[in-house]
Amino acid sequence: MESSGGSEFDYLFKLLMIGDSGVGKSSLLLSFTSDTFEDLSPTIGVDFKVKHVTIGGKKLKLAIWDTAGQERFRTLTSSYYRGAQGIIMVYDVTRRETFTNLSDIWAKEIDLYSTNQDCIKMLVGNKVDKESERVVTKKEGIDFAREYGCLFIECSAKTRVNVEHCFEELVLKILDTPSLTAEGSTTVKKSNIFNQKPPVSDASTSGCC
């Protein structure tokens, strides 16, 4: 995978990173976009980074949204699911509750808020550099991914193992999905995803009381 500068690109894809606070979403994103690792403090609300890459012979502009894992930001982040072609669910292999919450919380959020039926989901087990502290087995990750129809990879933001591979595999799958490439094509008129505003109140995002 090569980075390609310039403003000319074939597709603009919106990717969303979700998961509990402290699982390493921001560190993964930083590792991918700037080739460095930092132990970052929790994201407040939503952050995003842009990366130009060439994958599968296509020049792509990736807008990657990094959402806060804390519950108090949930209503804020719900609006950012709209129009995402790819969603990355991250858990920490050394903290079981971050894995359990994928099905208890995050998979339900995707069902509630994702607007793309064909949206590609990727399950990422982070922090494999702490193998001696691992409590979630690779098989559990594979089984979860199979049940929820996700791609699956284990990686380490710290050592950069599989970080690029994670994003590359997700994007290749999006490129393989005609409905998503049509939506991401630069020839299609689309709303500016950088100007999204969070909902005014809870009522505007929930379908019921």
UniProtKB/TrEMBL annotation:
The name this protein goes by in its record: Ras-related protein Rab-18-B
Keyword Ribonucleoprotein: no
Recorded superkingdom: Eukaryota
Protein family membership: Belongs to the small GTPase superfamily. Rab family.
Function statement: Intracellular vesicle trafficking and protein transport.
Keywords linked to the UniProt accession: Cell membrane, GTP-binding, Lipoprotein, Membrane, Nucleotide-binding, Prenylation, Protein transport, Transport
Organism lineage: Eukaryota, Viridiplantae, Streptophyta, Embryophyta, Tracheophyta
Cellular component, GO, one term: plasma membrane
